[in-house]
Amino acid sequence: MDRHDIETYCEQGVWKNRRRDCEQPFSSGGSRLRQVAAGAEVARWVQGRHIIRGEDGAVAEIITYGTDSHA
After folding, report:
1. What's the whole-model pTM score?
2. InterPro entries, per this entry (predicted)?
3. What are phi and psi of 23, to 5 degrees?
4. Number of domains the chain contains
5. pLDDT tens, position by position, 40-61
6. I need a labelling partner for 68 at 20 to 30 A (CA). Which of 3, 13, 27, 50 fits?
């Protein structure tokens, strides 16, 4: 787990976003699409990974922003 990982997840029917090293969400409410877009924006900003979970908690998609290599 990296401090730059952003996680979009559903908790008790409410879609939320949080940094994976933090229990508190930084955004919540609205549609899944709205929270996925908000999570993607923050992940791009911190150049980290965006982990998107389904309603069942399983990882549905991981998108990486930025690079770890020096070409």
Report:
1. 0.87
2. DUF2188
3. -75, -30
4. 1
5. 999 999 999 999 999 999 999 9
6. 27
